[in-house]
Design a protein that fits this description.
Helix content is about 30%, strand content about 30%. It is an alpha/beta fold. Helix 1 (about 40-60) runs parallel beside helix 4.
């Protein structure tokens, strides 16, 4: 399991257009990474639109927004176009990254895990260190977290 204060594991996944995106390419910027269950579902749409609506404030705080789901690139491209989403949507159909980051396999009654992606949030600082994570949160809680993240102060330039 990922631990706050430790380096975030690097990964590479294709975005909605098939372009490979590496987490390490964003060193020097904060990264706000969200996992969602399925593009187009009510909770995921609400989360995606909350990210879209707070996008300018997140960018002003020197944060890059990335989302990740098990949806295909084609589904993600359609979702991005239909909802006018200004950030990258990453496709992880084999759940490799989602599993490694603790967002695949939603606990049910504490006994078993459902084979699906849990809404989750990670914040990685400009040095690649995990500074916050919320696993298995509701889409409403995710939307509230986005609003809080949008209030992050901008990074200070080194003197």
């Amino acid at each position: 399991m990922l631990q706050i204060g430790e380096p975030a594991p690097d990964f590479e996944l294709p975005n909605q257009d098939g372009k490979p995106i590496k987490l390490s390419d964003y060193r020097g910027q904060r990264v706000v990474l969200f996992a969602f269950t399925k593009a187009g579902t009510p909770g995921c749409t609400a989360q995606a639109c909350a990210l879209r609506d707070e996008f300018d404030d997140l960018r002003a705080a020197d944060a890059v927004v990335l989302t990740i789901s098990a949806d295909s690139q084609e589904v993600l491209a359609h979702f991005k176009r239909n909802r006018d989403l200004p950030y990258e949507l990453l496709s992880d159909p084999d759940h490799t990254v989602l599993k490694a980051w603790g967002a695949y396999g939603m606990p049910m009654l504490g006994l078993l895990k459902l084979p699906m992606t849990a809404h989750s949030l990670w914040v990685i600082d400009e040095n690649g260190i995990l500074i916050d994570q919320k696993l298995g949160i509701s889409s409403k809680a995710a939307s509230q977290a986005i609003h809080v993240l949008a209030a992050l102060p901008p990074l200070q330039s080194p003197s």
